[in-house]
Each structure stands twice: as C-alpha cells, then as structure tokens.
Amino acid sequence: MTKEDKVLVIQDIKEMLQDAKVVYVATLEGMNAAATSDFRRQAFKQNITLKVVKNTLLQKAMEQIEGVDYSEMFQTFKGNTAVMISETANAPAKLIQTFRKKSEIPALKSAYLQETFYIGDENLTDLVNIKSREEMIGEIITLLQSPLRNVLSALQNKEDAAGKAEEAAPVAEEVKAEEAPVAEEAKEETPAPAAEATPEADAETKDAPSAE
To answer: Which residues of 99-138 are buried (b: 16+ CB within 10 A; e: fewer)?
Structure first.
C-alpha cells in the first residue's frame, strides 16, 4: 500500500468515526468466508457500518479525531481488526453474541459508547444488556404517560359520576311532582271528624223549655 493509499484509508476511517457515538472494535479472525459474508450481511441489515482495517491506520485515524481520546483502546489493536459503527448502543454486541452461539468468534476487542470505554471480550454481556436510546426513550415516555393516564382516568370517573347525578336529579323531581297531587287529593277526600256532643250540651238541651 502506497503512502497516498494509506492517507486515503485513514481519511475514510476518520469520516466513519467523526460523529460516531457507538464504536466497537472486534476480530473476525478464524471465520470462514461464508460466515464472514453472513456477518457482513447481518450488520448491513441492522444499519451497522462494518470495515476491516489495519491496526496502525485505525490508530492514526483515531489520533486525529477531535473531542474523543481513543488511546485507551489502542492496546487491543492486534491481529485482525474490524470496526463497527452503529446508532444503537447494543446492536453490535447483540450481533456478535448471535454468531457466538456457534463458535468463539467473532470476539470483542474494545468498545466506546455513552462516553465510556469497554476493554476486553468479557464486557460483551454487559454491552448486550445496555439499553438503546430508543428503549430508554420508550421507558421515559411510559413513565410520563402513567401519571397522565391516572389523571385522565380520575377525570373520566368524575365526569361519569357527575353525569349520573344529573340524570338522577330530574327523575327525583318527577317523582316528587307526581306524589304531591296524590297527597292533596287524599287530603280533600278525608272527611272531617263529626263534632262530639259534650255532656254540658246535652244538659242544656234537656233543660231548655219546649216551645209551646
């Protein structure tokens, strides 16, 4: 590879890394052509940019990136190296794990995501379990919606109760209105009790002189 070619490759790697938030470095060494082709195909389907690079050129490219100090990863740049760039934090880790069900490769060398470095393949499980931004946003939305749903439910119940009370009020008024005339009629139909004759009145009647 000529010096000019190396410059072009370094520039290409820099463009990959320039705004990357999720960077994995793995090894595909030992994978046969079919497995490597399948790995590349699955990476493409998951929007993971995959590029096999030379260690020295990768390090030079990273050294020229502003804003991130990748030097902690340089110790892992040995043998076959593949760079994986993704928008989803755990996507490359999940892809590696899927292929690891059949063999020990690919293997994780190092990774940089969420402003944290992970060095060594023993971090693969932790990286798989890291929640993606979409998952975290979904959980936040769910947490925010939960109190809102409770408030809306309470308001709905209150409206339903108020509606039932309004419906019951006219019925109660109608019942009272119907009962009132019946009460008046009963009052009119009840005869007044006859006046009882007192003993004094009887005596007066007996003593009174009869008309001649």
So the answer is: beeeeebbbbbbbbbeeebbbebebbeebbebebeeeeee
Judge whether 84 and 50 are in contact, CB under 8 Å. Answer: yes
Structure tokens at 207: 């003593």
Residues 6+ apart with CB under 8 A from 55: 77, 78, 79, 81
Summarize pLDDT for 109-139 with one digit per residue, the tens.
Answer: 999 998 899 999 999 999 999 876 556 566 5
Distance of CA 134 to the CA centre of its chain: 9
Q: How many CB atoms lie within 10 A of CB 54?
A: 16
Question: Against a cut of 0.70, is the pTM above it?
Answer: no
Query: 29 — phi, psi (to 5°)?
Result: -60, 130
143: helix, strand or coil: helix
The region that residue 47 occupies, defined by phi over 0 for left and psi between -120 and 50 for alpha, beta otherwise, is: left
- State the DSSP string of 64-77: T-SS--GGGGGGG-
